[in-house]
Structures are given as C-alpha cells and as structure tokens.
Amino acid sequence: MDSGGSVNSDYDVGERTVVPALRALGVRKLDLVIATHADTDHIEGISGVLRGLPVGELWVGHLKTDDPMLTTVLLTARERRVPVREVRRGDQLKVSGLTLNVLWPVGKVWSTEDNDNSVAVTLESQGWRTALLGDLADPAEALIGAGKLDLLKAAHHGSRFSSGEAVLAQTRPKDVLISVGRNTYGHPHPAVLARIEAVGQRCGARIRRARCAGPCPSGRRDAGCGRAA
Hints:
Layout: H1 13-24, E1 33-35, H2 40-43, H3 46-52, E2 58-60, H4 68-79, E3 84-86, E4 92-95, E5 98-104, E6 120-125, E7 128-132, H5 140-143, E8 151-153, H6 165-171, E9 175-179, H7 190-203, E10 206-210
Parallel strand pairs: 1-2, 2-3, 7-8, 8-9, 9-10
Antiparallel strand pairs: 4-5, 5-6, 6-7
Helix pairs in contact: 1-3, 3-4
C-alpha cells in the first residue's frame, strides 16, 4: 500500500528502498499495489516498484487526470502491462484466508483535498484485523466504519488533524502504527500521541513508530517500535 516518495528530491524510494526491502523479505512478486491518493510522499515510489517487481494489479481511488505524479504512475503501469482498477467502498478481495475490504472512497463526490479522497481498507485474517487509512482526516476517518481493530495504522503520519477521539474510541486498537520519519511538519503531533495514550490507558493500546523497515538509504536500520516517550 503506497511506496513512499522524496519530495523535492530525485531519490527513487521505490527502486532504491522499497524493492530492496521487499526482496530482503523474500518477496519476488506482488499480487496487488494500492495507490491511496495523489501525494508525492505516498505514490512516487510506486513507479519504481512496478518496474522492479511483477505486480498483478494496481488499485486507485480518485483517478485524477491533472496530477503529474499520478500520471507518471499510470503510465508506468501501462508500460509494465499492470491492470489498473478504480476501487470504491464495498469492493473486496479474498485470497489465501485474507479478506481485504475497501471502506473509502465512495466515489460520488470528490474533495478538492487529495487526503480526503484516500483509499482506506481493512485487512482481516483468522480473527485479526487492521485498517490502513491513507491520509484521511477527522471526522471522515471515523465515518467509514472500520470497527474494532487489533492494529490501526494512524492516518496522515500522526497529523493533528487525524487519529481523532472518535476513530480511536470506535476501533479500540491494541496497537497503533505511525509511519513517520524526520520531517518539518511536526509529525507525530503531541496531541495525537496524547489521544492514543489515553486510549491505551483504557484498552491497552500501544504506539509503534515505523521509520525505516528495511535497507535504508543511509545503510542503517532505524526502525523503531515501542511506547511513545
């Protein structure tokens, strides 16, 4: 789901970080890649992934025609003969005991904010459930009905506009994963960490920060897991 990107940089995250990390994990092909929304930090690396590994299908939500980054990804998919599918709420994929449900977008009306058009999904396997919400903001993240979760991937890298009290109360996750690295946006926001900590006091939710989960550009592994300080 997404493949990162380097804003204002020519570093190819997909080719130089994501693909080597997948190969290190023994992954030689991908049945599905999901592009959540047309933000560089989410989808720029997908082109490198499509070139580096066989991919069965590419899912997108808002198929914008005026976004250069999304256009590049779609052109790469065409070159690699990867089918592109526009997904909507209610779409589902079942394979090998896994169930992937699309909760968002509905697709009838599009927001001018790309974040609000993010593809959001739940993934279930043998009673274990997680939700990946892209960059959805509060209150939309709580309206899609993710339900009780074992793991919540916090929307928008821990932005103060996401991971609101409503979605945390609804999902009551055992773990909350925040995908974040060094940034100038203040992610994760202290208010978000406080909200998750409050949920943790009630239902045991733990914060886990995912920084670099594979061969990093610097040559070091600095993935971090644990309770937030």
